[in-house]
């Protein structure tokens, strides 16, 4: 159950102030101090990165965690890194974002019918959160799912994000199919009242090797849009 009088704004404040994971606190703050040479003249955010987007969204996009020199630098998830370049181009082409670029919190980006979050809110070393770190962040995602009452589609970017979503879905009392869904690109499962879609994460490793191509990524967002065309806006939960 979510706390009484909870809200997305309350979660944002709690996320930003969170220091529950000592390893992640040390890492994110170290990265913010040392900085990458290309961003040496910039002040890094260096704190947990909150979710953002349309509070009446019908599409929820879940990533793994902020990038050390992306969200950990800019203070907005998927902003200022290569993964974000892919994501926001795709969101813009599908009509979920007003622009195809995301470089800073004040860049004018607006999400339409879309909310973006992550399984873990701090940049982890080697992009590998521990099991305990996933668990400490899980309540934030649980509360967001309970507050986003218009959701119809959940898109998990990568196997870890999918696993985190399924844990949270069960944690808020929803049914998870048996056998448990197995991750693959372009996956689709009905988890009423939402449809779960999956995609390879648009990480540089996946895009530079050709494991994920833009046409493949766009196809997932077209699928989300097709589902939403059949689901008119309006709170149903």
What does this 3D model show about the protein?
By secondary structure, the protein is α/β, with parallel strands linked by helices. It has a single domain, classed as Uracil-DNA glycosylase-like domain (Uracil-DNA Glycosylase, subunit E), CATH 3.40.470. Helix content is about 40%, strand content about 10%. It is built from eight helices and six strands. The protein has helices spanning about 10-15, 20-35, 70-75, 80-95, 130-145, 160-170, 205-210, 215-230, and strands at about 50-55, 60-65, 115-120, 155, 190, 195-200. Strands 1-3-2-4-6-5 form a six-stranded mixed beta sheet. A hairpin with a 2-residue loop joins strand 5 and strand 6. Helix 4 crosses helix 8 (about 215-230) and helix 5 crosses helix 6 (about 160-170). About 45% of the residues are buried. The model has no long low-confidence stretch (mean pLDDT about 95).
């Amino acid at each position: 159950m979510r706390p009484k009088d909870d809200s997305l704004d309350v979660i944002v404040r709690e996320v930003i102030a969170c220091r529950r994971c000592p390893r992640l606190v040390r890492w994110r703050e170290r990265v913010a101090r040392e900085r990458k040479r290309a961003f040496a003249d910039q002040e890094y955010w260096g704190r947990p990165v909150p979710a953002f987007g349309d509070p009446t969204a019908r599409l929820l996009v879940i990533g793994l965690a902020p990038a050390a020199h992306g969200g950990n630098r800019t203070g907005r998830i998927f902003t200022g890194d290569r993964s974000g370049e892919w994501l926001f181009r795709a969101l813009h082409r599908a009509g979920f974002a007003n622009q195809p670029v995301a470089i800073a919190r004040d860049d004018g980006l607006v999400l339409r019918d879309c909310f973006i979050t992550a399984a873990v809110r701090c940049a982890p070393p080697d992009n590998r959160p521990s099991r305990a770190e996933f668990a400490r962040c899980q309540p934030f995602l649980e509360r967001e799912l309970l507050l986003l009452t218009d959701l119809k589609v959940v898109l998990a970017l990568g196997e870890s994000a999918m696993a985190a979503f399924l844990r949270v879905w069960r944690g808020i009392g929803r049914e998870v199919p048996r056998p448990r869904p197995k991750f693959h690109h372009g996956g689709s499962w009905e988890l009423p009242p939402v449809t779960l879609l999956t995609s390879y994460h648009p990480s540089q490793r996946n895009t530079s090797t050709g494991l994920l191509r833009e046409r493949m990524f766009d196809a997932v967002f077209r699928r989300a849009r097709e589902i939403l065309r059949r689901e008119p806006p309006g709170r149903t939960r």
